[in-house]
Amino acid sequence: MASALTLSLNNVEQSSLVTGATGFLGRHLVRSLIEHGHTVTALSRQHPNLVTPSVRFVSGDILNEHSLADATRNVSVVYHLAAIVPGKGGQAEQWRVNYHGTRLLLKSCIENGVKRLVFLSSVCAYAPPLNAVIDEDSPIGGGDSYGQSKAAAELEIANAATNDLSTVILRPSQVYGPGDSGFTSMLVSMLSGKLLFLAGRSPRPFSLVYVDDLIEAIVQAGTCPNISSNTLNIAGPPTDLRALASAYAAITHHTAKCVPLPISAVHLAQELRWFSRNLSGNAMRPRWKSYSANQVYGSVLLGGPEYSASRAKLALGFEAKTSIQKGLENVLSRDN
Ligand SMILES: NC(=O)c1ccc[n+]([C@@H]2O[C@H](COP(=O)([O-])OP(=O)(O)OC[C@H]3O[C@@H](n4cnc5c(N)ncnc54)[C@H](OP(=O)(O)O)[C@@H]3O)[C@@H](O)[C@H]2O)c1
Fold first, then answer.
1. 23 CB less than 6 Å from ligand 1?
2. Does a structural domain hold residue 202?
3. CB of 63 shorter than 6 A to ligand 1
4. In sequence order, what DSSP letters do the residues of 8-61 get, joined into one string?
5. Is the CB of 47 under 6 A from ligand 1?
6. How far is the CA of 220 from the centre of ligand 1 (A)?
7. What is the pLDDT of residues 26-38, one digit of tens each?
8. CATH number for the domain including 66?
9. How many domains is the chain partitioned into structurally?
């Protein structure tokens, strides 16, 4: 199967649109598509500094139908990454961009005869409470406005799939890699400190995936002719903070002193953060007390469920090939 997929990648000349091309994942994806010889259109509100002669840049908002009509013209595959991710906007903007933006993009895809749409959803689309191991049959609905808007967008996409437009929905767990000013920077600053705070004394595993492994899956999702399932988790095997700290120490020879904190103190800190984020979104969710998004979907400190990626392995040949040590080495040695 893997060789058939590779063949399709090498032989099909593809014209692709990447939304969210200026973001952490979008920049990696555009580079990879160019390396595979694809013609790439990038849609973004700001001019991406990644533009090369092989990238057609369309300046515009995902909510602007004219920009979308222009961006989807003569494109066979759309990789839809544009979104307001947690911490980068309020709830109303999350709904506008993540849900309504996806609906408008779908309409343009259909009108312009796009053949395949690959949508970057998230494990945050699952509805809490979550089981210890989550596969793609687990119910969706999301726990906060980000996850809810992703789940609602997924339903629109699933309903729009036809013989003319095939759709693939990917649900990545937390991603890390070079060029990420969010989670990865926070992780490196935790690991490089003098003290490393842990929640309790036992390991609390959570799911991570290295950016290159995810990008390979995204490209496969856009290029392989037939796939057996069209909604797929993309996640590496669970890891934990102690494993990350020892990989970091092996690379840098820096060893932080581990300080176990009472789990209740960590929960309280997470709830306060969740509460303040909801307040700043001007609409406090009534259930804010019952969970915190981070601890539900996976947190460096508190751990989280395991997201099974066995269907992605079957459908796309997905493998989390990059070890934690190799991934961290790449993060520490590259700027972007
Ligand atoms: N990073 C992760 O760990 C992770 C995990 C699971 C799923 N995902 C999903 O993967 C996708 C990419 O994530 P990321 O980490 O790369 O996010 P990111 O760095 O925040 O990038 C988001 C992108 O969306 C674009 N965007 C936002 N609002 C827009 C609008 N109104 N019109 C047009 N473009 C707009 C931004 O473009 P501008 O330059 O115009 O602002 C930016 O390029 C998202 O859909 C996210 O939900 C990410």
1. yes
2. no
3. yes
4. HHHH---EEEEETTTSHHHHHHHHHHHHTT-EEEEEESS--TT--TTEEEEE--
5. no
6. 20
7. 999 999 999 999 9
8. 3.40.50.720
9. 1
